[in-house]
Amino acid sequence: MSDCGCNKARAELEEYLRNEICKTDAADIRAHLETCEGCQSELHIGIVLTQTVQRACKETAPEEVREQLLLTLRTLQSH
């Protein structure tokens, strides 16, 4: 493991959060995050943003909004 530096850690932060990078790179980023407060802040923001998007994707629109959207889509498709 080595300290990969801020540039690499920040460039690969999203992939790191989604576990989409190799184990070696993940270990390097994790090691960097342990000692870098600036990147720790970026990580915190990334986690909060990811959780917010995940929650928003689970919510359903109110029935009247869904009906209006479907009506609009059907109208657009028929033209």
How would you characterize the overall build of this protein?
The protein is mostly helical and 79 residues long. The longest helix is centred in the middle third of the chain and has 22 residues. It is elongated, with a radius of gyration of 20 Å. It has 5 helices and no strands. The termini are far apart. The chain has one domain: Arc Repressor Mutant, subunit A (Orthogonal Bundle), CATH 1.10.10. Helix 3 packs across helix 4. The model has no long low-confidence stretch (mean pLDDT 90).
Low-confidence stretches: none
Shape: elongated
Order of SSEs: HHHHH
Q: How large, in whole angstroms, is the Cα Rg?
A: 20 Å
Tally the structural domains.
1
Report the CATH architecture. Orthogonal Bundle
CATH topology-level name: Arc Repressor Mutant, subunit A
Assign a percent range to the helix content.
over 70%
Mean pLDDT: 90
CATH class: Mainly Alpha
**Biggest β-sheet description:** none
Total number of helical segments? 5
